[in-house]
């Protein structure tokens, strides 16, 4: 018995491989360790991130469905809800106990109902609709709010970088 | 790579320093003295010592852990920074006995701390690693053994040195190593639990519980240690600034652990005792994947009050963190009582469903009873027949109430509690309990509903009901002799509403249109009532005697009726009260209340009939009033477009009492009731007389 976390991660991996959601690829970095995942997220269409492919890394805790995983973009990405070091700041990735921003209700926090797929879909929607109310990257939030053109320009640069251009 | 260069650089520097010293002094002892006297040389030596420590750490790491995982490394670096800053703070406290040895000891402490953390992380990793090799076990066990041994040795040393030389910096080390010892113990407990878990095929449910409790115990020990440490430090030296952060963290962790234990215990107890096991049907129907572990649920599942089903073990481990429903976030601890009720609901949904509608009618009935009592005191004879007929209806309706309601203890109280409320409301006609589903604006319908509701009570017997109220036509062919004995006794009396049924119908149609016209119709009624009452009062005495007759009969005949009564929501006790209280006037109350629950069951059907009747719009029903029940039936079937004849009849029979309290909301009704109870008929009706008076007689009759 290797723990319910592992079983569930395997189940989710299977699910994601069988029915991959559009614009998302995810899977364990290596089959020996199911608690480290790599994900590729395509920038949503009709946004300034369109066309980009952003790699991210998901780290799952040992009590996974009970505690949220951590997600970190491994590429450069300029976004109000992504820390400068790539960590993603969305409410469903926060355990109900801690509230780094002090604004989230527990209703939008992590719960075992969430899954890798839902997290990645939330991230996609976060890319298309940044939430500048609770900015992880204040510079990005400010740029997004005050200088949308500049923000889009930076986003396009990151898109090009993410594609290796 | 960089570290390799640095190491090499350090080695080269050391070699050059030593070579230089030996080259200058030519002998071992003088060269050592030279190096120790020279500050730059000593600096190089210290750096070299540090490099050695790091190298040794790497060696040990390779020995005990192999390759460190990225997360472990990150964790280690993060914690090391805190540890270093705290160590620097500690230096400020002990700056008096600042010495290389002191620094060395702190470095050693930091070094050992790192290994403790790594051990913790590594044991945590056990849980998520798919396969654990024997090498892992060996490494973990030996590491924990070595760490524990070192901790004990250092604690011992600190203790004896403090005992012999008085308090010194050893105090700090003693406490630090004690804390580290608790870490080792905790790690070992975790290791044991994980190891046991690994042995078994199935998830070990109790592991999390044990973990929680051991964490609580260790947290407690740590809190005590820190408090004692701070206390002693304040007495001996100064406030230990460097201990604040870990102490705060420890206290918080302990508090969290305690809270977790308490809340999860409560939630799990609730789960075990209150929440029902999911039935096989629930599991087989639809999506039966446990949302927590994403596996199929076959057995051992619990259903939360919100209806979501999970594995018991999954739910337990979730409750150790959060006491909410994972799906809908219902706070399971917020509602300890409702929970039980809901659980009961789930367990006995039928009973509940039966009870819910019953309670409302019960209130209705209560209110009705109370309302009726006032009029009755004034003119018992007038209404004497009605309740009795209800009685008869109750007896005649062959099936007893479909639900044999055995009130669960809590709910048994509810009706009783409601009773006083309903009773209190009753005298004022506008008791909310009796407000019918339709809005006040649609008063005609409401009154109709009232009629139909009461008619529904009588269901099968209702056909006979209208005719019983028509003394002018003593024929009553359809009546079953068994259920109608009272009718015959009444038949002789000239008395009350000859054509209640027909009139109600017609009148309702009249009142359908606008509210005002509706009111006017009612006003007409009132006037008629007045006239009728005058006549009726004369007969009261006669009726009284009849009532007594009925009572005696009722006692005899209604024995079977009592059974349905007991199933009604009103508690037996209540009924007894009613019965006893009403014996002086009229004895039919219990029977009436017994019949009431059926209103609820028939409400829906009567609704249909209402509407159909309204649609039929046969306004020319005055003729109906004077027809026998048979005719009434026919006409109604005619009028009712789609409804069955039986349904159609139901509304025909209008029960004044029911009507009254459903229409209480209406002002006119209020007045009417007042005027019934107060006997101030004249004054009231004179106010209302302004309206036209077409069908006064019939309407008034219907009222009764």
UniProtKB/TrEMBL annotation, chain A:
UniProt protein name: Ubiquitin-conjugating enzyme E2 G2
Organism whose genome encodes this protein: Plakobranchus ocellatus
Entry annotated with the keyword Nucleotidyltransferase: no
Active-site positions on this chain: 89 (glycyl thioester intermediate)
Role of this protein: Accepts ubiquitin from the E1 complex and catalyzes its covalent attachment to other proteins. In vitro catalyzes 'Lys-48'-linked polyubiquitination. Involved in endoplasmic reticulum-associated degradation (ERAD). Required for sterol-induced ubiquitination of 3-hydroxy-3-methylglutaryl coenzyme A reductase and its subsequent proteasomal degradation.
Family: Belongs to the ubiquitin-conjugating enzyme family.
Main enzyme class: transferase
UniProt domain UBC core: residue ranges: 4-164
Catalytic activity: S-ubiquitinyl-[E1 ubiquitin-activating enzyme]-L-cysteine + [E2 ubiquitin-conjugating enzyme]-L-cysteine = [E1 ubiquitin-activating enzyme]-L-cysteine + S-ubiquitinyl-[E2 ubiquitin-conjugating enzyme]-L-cysteine
Keywords on record: ATP-binding, Nucleotide-binding, Transferase, Ubl conjugation pathway
Automatic annotation (TrEMBL), chain B:
Biased composition (Basic residues): 668-678
Pathway of action: Protein modification; protein ubiquitination
Source organism of this protein record: Elysia marginata
Membrane-spanning ranges: 43-64, 100-119, 140-159, 179-198, 210-234
Membership in a protein family: Belongs to the HRD1 family.
Positions with biased composition (Polar residues): 599-611
Compositional bias (Low complexity): 339-368, 411-468, 564-585, 683-695
Name of this chain's protein: RING-type E3 ubiquitin transferase
Compositionally biased region (Basic and acidic residues): 623-638, 646-667
UniProt topology in membrane: Multi-pass membrane protein
Catalytic activity: S-ubiquitinyl-[E2 ubiquitin-conjugating enzyme]-L-cysteine + [acceptor protein]-L-lysine = [E2 ubiquitin-conjugating enzyme]-L-cysteine + N(6)-ubiquitinyl-[acceptor protein]-L-lysine
GO cellular component: endoplasmic reticulum membrane
Pfam families per UniProt: TPR_SYVN1_N, zf-RING_2
Domain RING-type: 290-329
Keywords assigned: Endoplasmic reticulum, Membrane, Metal-binding, Transferase, Transmembrane, Transmembrane helix, Ubl conjugation pathway, Zinc, Zinc-finger
Classification of source organism: Eukaryota, Metazoa, Spiralia, Lophotrochozoa, Mollusca
EC number of the protein: 2.3.2.27
Region (Disordered), start-end ranges: 339-477, 551-704
Gene Ontology MF terms: ubiquitin protein ligase activity; zinc ion binding
Record-level GO BP terms: ERAD pathway; proteasome-mediated ubiquitin-dependent protein catabolic process
Protein localization: Endoplasmic reticulum membrane
Pro residues composition-biased segments: 397-410
């Amino acid at each position: 018995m290797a723990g319910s976390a592992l079983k569930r991660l395997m189940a989710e991996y299977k699910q994601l491989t069988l029915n991959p959601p559009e614009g998302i690829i995810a899977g364990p970095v290596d089959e020996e360790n199911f608690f480290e995942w790599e994900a590729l997220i395509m920038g949503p269409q009709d946004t300034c991130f369109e066309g980009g492919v952003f790699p991210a890394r998901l780290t799952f805790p040992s009590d996974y469905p009970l505690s949220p995983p951590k997600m970190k973009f491994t590429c450069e990405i300029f976004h109000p809800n992504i820390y400068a070091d790539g960590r993603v700041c969305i409410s469903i990735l926060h355990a109900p106990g801690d509230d780094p921003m002090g604004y989230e209700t527990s209703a939008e926090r992590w719960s075992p109902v969430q899954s890798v797929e839902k997290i990645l879909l939330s991230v996609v929607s976060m890319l298309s609709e940044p939430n500048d109310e609770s900015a992880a990257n204040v510079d990005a939030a400010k740029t997004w709010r005050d200088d949308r053109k500049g923000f889009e320009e930076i986003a396009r640069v990151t898109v090009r970088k993410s594609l290796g251009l | 790579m960089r570290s390799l260069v640095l190491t090499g650089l350090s080695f080269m520097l050391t070699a050059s320093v030593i070579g230089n010293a030996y080259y200058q002094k030519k002998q071992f002892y003088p060269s050592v003295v030279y190096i120790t006297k020279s500050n730059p040389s000593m600096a190089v030596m210290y750096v070299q010592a540090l490099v050695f420590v790091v190298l040794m750490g790497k060696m040990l790491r390779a020995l005990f852990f192999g390759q460190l995982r990225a997360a472990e490394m990150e964790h280690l670096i993060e914690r090391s920074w805190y540890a270093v800053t705290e160590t620097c703070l500690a230096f400020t406290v002990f700056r008096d006995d600042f010495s290389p040895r002191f620094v060395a000891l702190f470095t050693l402490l930091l070094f050992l701390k790192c290994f403790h953390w790594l051990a913790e992380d590594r044991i945590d990793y056990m849980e998520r690693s798919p396969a654990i090799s024997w090498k892992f076990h060996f490494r973990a066990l030996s590491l924990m053994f070595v760490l524990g041994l070192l901790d004990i040795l250092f604690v011992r040393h600190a203790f004896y040195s403090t005992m012999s030389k008085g308090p010194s910096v050893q105090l700090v080390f003693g406490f630090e190593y004690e804390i580290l010892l608790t870490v080792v113990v905790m790690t070992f407990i975790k290791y044991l639990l994980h190891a046991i878990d690994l042995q078994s095929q199935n998830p070990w449910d109790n592991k999390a519980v044990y973990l929680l409790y051991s964490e609580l115990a260790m947290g407690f020990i740590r809190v005590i240690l820190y408090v004692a440490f701070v206390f002693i430090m304040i007495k001996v030296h100064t406030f230990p600034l460097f201990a604040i952060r870990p102490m705060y963290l420890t206290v918080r962790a302990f508090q969290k652990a305690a809270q977790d234990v308490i809340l999860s215990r409560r939630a799990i107890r609730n789960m075990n005792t209150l929440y029902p096991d999911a039935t096989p049907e629930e599991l087989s129907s639809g999506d039966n994947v446990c949302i927590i572990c994403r596996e199929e649920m076959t057995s051992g599942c619990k259903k939360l009050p919100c209806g979501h089903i999970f594995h018991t073990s999954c739910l337990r481990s979730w409750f150790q963190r959060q006491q909410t429903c994972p799906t809908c976030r219902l706070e399971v601890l917020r509602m300890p009582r409702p929970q039980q009720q809901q659980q009961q609901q789930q367990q006995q949904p039928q009973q509940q469903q039966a009870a819910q509608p019953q309670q409302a009618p019960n209130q209705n009935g209560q209110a009705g009873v109370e309302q009726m009592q006032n009029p009755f005191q004034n003119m018992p004879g007038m209404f004497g027949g009605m309740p009795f007929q209800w009685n008869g209806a109750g007896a005649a309706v062959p099936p007893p109430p479909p639900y044999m309601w055995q009130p669960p203890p809590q709910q048994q109280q509810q009706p009783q509690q409601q009773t006083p409320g309903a009773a209190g409301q009753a005298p004022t006609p506008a008791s909310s309990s009796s407000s019918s589903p339709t809005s006040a604006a649609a008063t005609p319908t409401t009154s109709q509903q009232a009629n139909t509701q009461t008619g529904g009570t009588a269901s099968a017997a209702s056909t006979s009901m209208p005719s019983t109220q028509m003394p002018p036509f003593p024929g009553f062919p359809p009546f079953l002799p068994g259920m109608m004995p009272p009718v015959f006794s009444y038949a002789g009396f000239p008395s009350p509403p000859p054509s209640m049924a027909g009139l109600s119908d017609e009148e309702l149609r009249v009142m359908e249109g606008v509210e005002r016209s509706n009111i006017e119709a009612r006003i007409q009624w009132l006037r008629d009532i007045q006239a009728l009452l005058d006549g009726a009062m004369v007969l009261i005495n006669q009726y009284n005697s009849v009532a007594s007759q009925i009572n005696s009969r009722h006692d005899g005949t209604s024995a079977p009726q009592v059974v349905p009564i007991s199933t009604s929501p009103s508690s037996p006790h209540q009924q007894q009260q009613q019965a006893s209280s009403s014996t002086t006037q009229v004895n039919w109350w219990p029977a009436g209340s017994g019949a009431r629950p059926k209103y609820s069951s028939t409400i829906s059907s009567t609704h249909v009939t209402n509407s159909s009747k309204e649609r039929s719009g046969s306004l020319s029903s005055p003729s109906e009033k004077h027809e026998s029940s048979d005719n009434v039936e026919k006409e109604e079937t005619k009028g009712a477009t789609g409804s069955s004849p039986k349904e159609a009849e139901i509304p025909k029979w209008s029960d004044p009492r029911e009507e009254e309290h459903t229409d209480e909301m209406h002002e006119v009704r209020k007045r009417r009731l007042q005027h019934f109870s107060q006997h101030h008929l004249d004054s009231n009706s004179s106010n209302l007389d302004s309206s036209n008076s077409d069908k006064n007689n019939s309407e008034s009759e219907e009222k009764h």
